[in-house]
Amino acid sequence: MILCIDMKNEKEFLFGKRTYRIMGVGLALIVLGFVLMTGGGSDDPNVFNPAIYSPLRIRVAPTLVLAGFGVLVVAILATKKK
């Protein structure tokens, strides 16, 4: 866990609850993107499987990964509500 210790010896989380929720959404998007990129291979190296070039694997999945990283940046830069 990320803790911030101030001069009064009080432990306080660096980010708020809202920020951690947004980070969770970002991480879920990244994981979903990588899961969607998997597969499409062939068990036999001499047989070509055109499913590797499906739009889901070459357009949607990388977009989800980049969106997840964008959400993480937004979460880190979001201000902490008091």
Q: Could you explain the architecture of this structure?
A:
This protein is mostly helical and 82 residues long. It has one domain. Helix content is 54%, strand content 7%. It contains 2 helices and 2 strands, in the order E-E-H-H. Helix 1 (17-37) runs antiparallel to helix 2. 5% of the residues are buried.
Q: If you average the pLDDT, what whole number results?
A: 86
- What order do the strands of the largest sheet run in, or round the barrel if closed? 1-2
- Spatial extent as radius of gyration: 19 Å
> H/E series, N to C?
EEHH
Number of domains: 1
Strand content: 5-15%
- Main sheet attributes: strand count, strand direction, barrel closure: 2 strands, antiparallel
State the end-to-end CA separation: 20 Å
Secondary structure: number of strands: 2
Number of helices: 2
- pLDDT < 50 stretches: none
Helix content: 40-55%
SS-based structural class? Answer: mainly alpha
Question: What shape does the CA trace take?
Answer: elongated
